[in-house]
Amino acid sequence: MAAEADGPEFVVDFPTLWVTCDWIEAHCPVPDGFHAGETMELYPWQLWCTVNHYRVKPTATLGQLAPAFYYRRSQVVAPQKTGKGPWSATVTLAKAAGPVVFAGWATGGERFRCRDYGCSCGWWYAYRSGEPMARPWPTPLIQLTASSEDQVANVFRPVPSSSVPRPATSRTSSPDEQPQRPLPWPSRPGQGTFRHAHVRP
Ligand SMILES: [Zn+2]
């Protein structure tokens, strides 16, 4: 379970896709440094941005795509080396293979199960009653844009084909490449079939 976005400035008093936050932490290992490959926990500001990005309107109804969400876009402005690139990479991976499409409201007892969407990792998430549910995009469109390829690489570098189990592996790896076990993000830089931008909705 993702840590609550705590602190007086981080009060989450609105419905949001906690399942997406937990999916990210379960599927995106620490990309580099001494803890590369270990389970990642989003920084408070990263979690705060994630829960706002996936804030759901209380009036959302099943079948709505962009209109189900409170915001249409997110912009993060922060100094260098604060984790903008890795956070963007986690959101990119969630868009590619994680539960990000509103799928109705839980009434109690529902679960998101990776295996239902082709991921063999065994992870699952139990919704609480009244919580918004989500499912992956069937055909995600991933586009990364920037003013230079180096800037795109800041985000794409942590998104190699092997960063998450089956779903992102099968969707981001080259067609002739066999799925690999999860490895630390920077271990196979530059691989993947998506390398451009995505702004959705
Ligand atoms: Zn999984």
If you had to describe this structure to a student in words, what would you say it looks like?
The chain is an alpha+beta fold and 201 residues long. It has one domain (18-187). The protein has five helices and four strands. The strands form two sheets. The protein has a two-stranded antiparallel ribbon. A two-stranded antiparallel ribbon has the order 2-3. The protein is globular, with a radius of gyration of 16 Å. The relative contact order is 0.18. Bound molecules: zinc ion.
Bound molecules: zinc ion
| End-to-end Cα distance | 26 Å
- Can you list the strand order of the major beta sheet? 1-4
Which regions have little confidence, pLDDT < 50, spanning 5+ residues? 165-201
Number of helices: 5
**Mean pLDDT across all amino acids:** 79
The profile of the biggest β sheet is: 2 strands, antiparallel
- Which structural class matches the secondary elements? alpha+beta
Query: What gross morphology would you assign?
Result: globular
Number of strands: 4
Percentage of β-strand residues: 5-15%
Number of domains: 1
Radius of gyration: 16 Å
Q: Approximately how much helix is present in the residues?
A: 10-25%
SSE pattern: HHHEEEEHH
